[in-house]
Amino acid sequence: NFQSTTRGDVITIVHAPGLDLSSVDRKFWKTPFYWSYEASAQGVSRREPGFVTGALVGRYDVHPIVALPLHVGEWSFRPEVGLRNTYYTQRLNPSGSGVGTVVDQAINRRALDTSLEIRPPVLSRIFEKKVADHTIKHTIEPRLTYRYVNGVSNFPDIIRFDQTDIASDTNELEYAVVNRIYAKG
Fold first, then answer.
1. How many C-beta atoms lie closer than 10 Å to residue 70's C-beta?
2. pTM of the full structure
């Protein structure tokens, strides 16, 4: 979100065509563990008043993940551990006054991310009274997810292009209550 009344005061971010790979969960041999990954190779650049990166800054990201889905009765638990490694061909030299300067020096950002998703049993009710000749079912699905990211020690040195670059040490709790209404005719 950037808006200025000064003429020509804009931020231009370029994403050159890149390569993105990801997988669905796959069983890890004959164990109860599952693995997946995300990987990308991209060229990005940023230009704004007083700050310009190279024509294309290389950004290479790999993120393997291991999960162990568990079921206890109707409860579902999913602990997950991932390692994220992002390599940049340029880095930011932060300054106390302003954005900083771009340095032609590679930088590597590593992070350990863990999470635990808990899904209690789904609550549901089928209504006896039909609506427009349809049987109505209402479900309530609670969810709770805890996430912890650690190891991002060089956050001020990372140039910000998009959401990939704002990874930092975090400790968060997310909760949701999903309501669904089904109609069967």
1. 11
2. 0.82
Q: Please, how many CA atoms are within 13 Å of residue 2, restricted to the half-sphere of its CB?
A: 9
Question: By the 8 A CB rule, do 65 and 81 touch?
Answer: yes
The burial class, CB within 10 Å (0-12 / 13-18 / 19+), for 118 is middle
Q: What are phi and psi of 136, to 5 degrees?
A: -105, 135
d(CA 68, CA 62): 20
Give one DSSP letter per residue of 55-72, joined into a string.
S-EEEEEEEEEEE--EEE
Whole-angstrom CA distances from 25 to 33, 35, 37, 60, 66 are 9, 5, 8, 22, 9
Condensed to tens digits (0 to 9), the pLDDT of residues 23-74 reads 999 999 999 999 999 999 999 999 988 889 999 999 999 999 999 999 999 9
- The letter for the amino acid at 76 is S
How many residues would you count in the chain?
A: 185
pLDDT digits (tens, 9 = 90+) for 47-61: 988 889 999 999 999
What is the Cα–Cα distance from 68 to 9, expressed in whole angstroms? 49
Contact 84, 50 (CB under 8 A): no
